[in-house]
């Protein structure tokens, strides 16, 4: 049965997040929702799935808090269950950069609507950076984008420090899955002296939903952190599966490979197993 998937986040001071965790979890369970919501003093970050009415009820429940009244979200339909259970977790950060002094609620880069993104990244004077991790980039990305070669978002500050120069890289355009990593990445870069920093509003998911296939500059599929593994243009369920052994996303070609037919290992980790 089809389910509605909603993703959302907001950087906002939530000093009482520990007190709100249990009531929020209880409400989600009452609505029959599944997914994960992260709470921290810096804000909220969530991905949930369920019936349309349950999802919309939760969003209304969250927006009843005046601090979240303008909480933006993105929706898509899936034909499989993307989550096993409902979790509400307390975290130090809703997306982990490891630099608590970076505060996106104080400053971020310039938002670029999906409809304006193609023109920006086609400008040869703009350096386009994929803020995601390398294994995500392997599933799909925009042409001309740079891969920071990171295994986690915590490594992004080192990439900025060692590979980028505010005097040389005058215009930066960044993108990530849903926009949240770019919020922190742009705040970091502004703090380090970069002046023109742009990021895709709503991330890749908003772009795939808003831009027609024939106009899209996206190449491949977009990795997502749930059981769909990846989505395509229109935020439709993609063709990738997850390796049960190493957790690496596996393309259709790799799924038909000899190592993968037992569903235990893929070409990325198969050499480590003795069948």
TrEMBL record:
UniProt keyword annotations, A-Z: Oxidoreductase, tRNA processing
Domain of life: Bacteria
Classification via InterPro entries: Rhodanese-like_dom (IPR001763), Rhodanese-like_dom_sf (IPR036873), TrhO (IPR020936), TRHO_N (IPR040503)
GO biological process: tRNA modification
Cited CDD domains: RHOD_YceA
GO molecular function, a single term: oxidoreductase activity, acting on paired donors, with incorporation or reduction of molecular oxygen
Catalytic reaction equation(s): uridine(34) in tRNA + AH2 + O2 = 5-hydroxyuridine(34) in tRNA + A + H2O
EC number: 1.14.-.-
Enzyme class: oxidoreductase
Residue ranges of every copy of the Rhodanese domain listed in the record: 122-216
Role: Catalyzes oxygen-dependent 5-hydroxyuridine (ho5U) modification at position 34 in tRNAs.
Protein family (similarity comment): Belongs to the TrhO family.
HAMAP family listed in its UniProt record: TrhO
Protein name per UniProt: tRNA uridine(34) hydroxylase
Biological source species: Myxacorys almedinensis A
Lineage: Bacteria, Bacillati, Cyanobacteriota, Cyanophyceae, Leptolyngbyales
Designated gene of the protein: trhO
